[in-house]
Amino acid sequence: MQFDVIVIGSGPAGTSAALPLVRSGKKVLMLDWGNKSDNSVPSQSHYDSRESDDKQSNWMIGKDLFSLKNNSSVSPKLRIPTLEYVFRDFEKSFSVDSDNFFYTGSMATGGLSNAWGAGVAALSPANLIKEYGSAYREMLTSYANVSPRLGISGSNADKLSTYFNVDRWADKGVDLDDLPKYILEEYDNKSESSDVVLGRARIAVLSKPKDERKKCDSLGNCLWGCKNESIYSAKYEMRSLMKSSNFKVINGVAVTNIKSNENRVYVSGFDQNGGEITFDAHSVFLGAGTLSTSKILVKSLAIRNSELRIQSCPTAAFLLFVPRFFGRKVSKSEFGLGQVSFKVKLTKKLDGFGSFFGTQGLPLYEFVRHLPIGISSGARFLSSIINSCMVGNLFLPGTLSTSKMIVDERGEISLSGSYDDSYRKLGSNAKTKLVKQFARMKCFMVPFSFKFTEPGACIHYASTFPISDSNEIGTCRKSGEVVGLKNVYVVDGASLPSLSEKSHTLTIMANSDRIARNYISRAHK
């Protein structure tokens, strides 16, 4: 079959481009590495599994001690045996030097959406105009196109409704657990500060069935794997695509280079046996993930002696203690993702964003390792309060990132991580505002728990080849086409004009949908 379009990557970006292309009748070839899970996810609640599953070490630690071997990883996700397949092979494939910048990615079917926090948000119309100019209406249309596919929940007439800007496509939220319910009630009764606003989290988790996916039943296994498929993953979109006769996916392929002329685009790379592969089509849509896409483009454009800015969000984590629940027993049913979110004012124009998560689905060691005391003492201390705590995170805008992808005279890539000098002051001010608001709600941030991570640890990477009007090498046009590579379009985070503090996956998907639909419209003229 001669293909009209090649889509590289099966994550949220790749599938969001492939779906409208396939529905328009285009013959689409998707190239992907396609790792699949080797482990079954827990079938009963996290509480019951920990109490009675005599094989729980297989998914808690791993048959090959996977969790212990990855003890130094900054994110708990990289220590979860059932998520091993998500990150497998990426470091070997990407393989660059890094200085103070944490990087990871996925070569699994569905990409990083197999291991995400499921947070969703849309940019405001004002921000869309600023970032996309005359194309902002197209983004609004594409948000409406992609949002129903995810199965969003959390719709609520609260003070964050306008900030998230997704309630028109969202169902009611999953039932609140005791701690987040108490936090919201206390906030509603004592919300004196306009600098800190709390509300329901908006997440891509089903509160009612959708197609083959079942609604969430709060088993607490969100981090380990959802047997109900309640949490959105792009791999579920592959079911629909695979039913189309004009769509084909080839797994076990990694693309390394792209060449284009007026009529065809040629991609080359290697397969799982190390053999060379080549494919061609009229156009190529790059959705391999920001880091992989950037590496492909650096080689394809023969970029040398250059620095590409890479945005990531300065990110902090903390532990929130709720005294009213001190001494409570472990709940037999608890939701494992964010249920309460907040916005904190940083400056007149900048906000920070965060969410609260339950602690039951995480091993105690994930908290002990961050305390400034010994492991034994820390374990005793935390075991006494952990059931009355929630984990919080804080994301600052990616525009505060000054990290770089450095390309030397040979075209070799290295990563250097840094933030603008203002981020520490902004983070400290945000912490002060949060502590004051929490105190009004009779909640307290555990001392020494508020810590920023190294650049890149948020695993939000964006804007290496941003959409711009500059028409310069290292950017994309508003159409998504790469300057210097005709008929090659970037549909993942690499082409975002900037990285918001908000959850960015929905915006990536909307931009991908927009780029694909514009391509279809031009082709039909």
Description:
- The two termini are 24 Å apart.
- The chain has two domains: 1-35 and 88-151 and 232-304 and 461-525, 3-Layer(bba) Sandwich (FAD/NAD(P)-binding domain); 152-225 and 315-395 and 420-454, Cholesterol Oxidase, domain 2, CATH 3.30.410.
- The protein has helices at residues 12-23, 46-52, 56-60, 66-69, 84-87, 90-94, 125-132, 136-150, 161-164, 178-189, 237-242, 290-300, 365-368, 375-385, 422-440, 505-523, and strands at 5-8, 28-31, 97-99, 152-153, 170-171, 196-200, 247-250, 253-260, 265-271, 276-281, 283-286, 306-309, 315-321, 340-345, 351-357, 389-395, 404-407, 413-416, 444-445, 451-452, 488-490.
- It has 16 helices and 21 strands.
- The chain has 525 residues and is an alpha/beta fold.
- The strands form five sheets. Strands 6, 13, 14, 15, 16, 19 and 20 form a seven-stranded antiparallel β-sheet that branches.
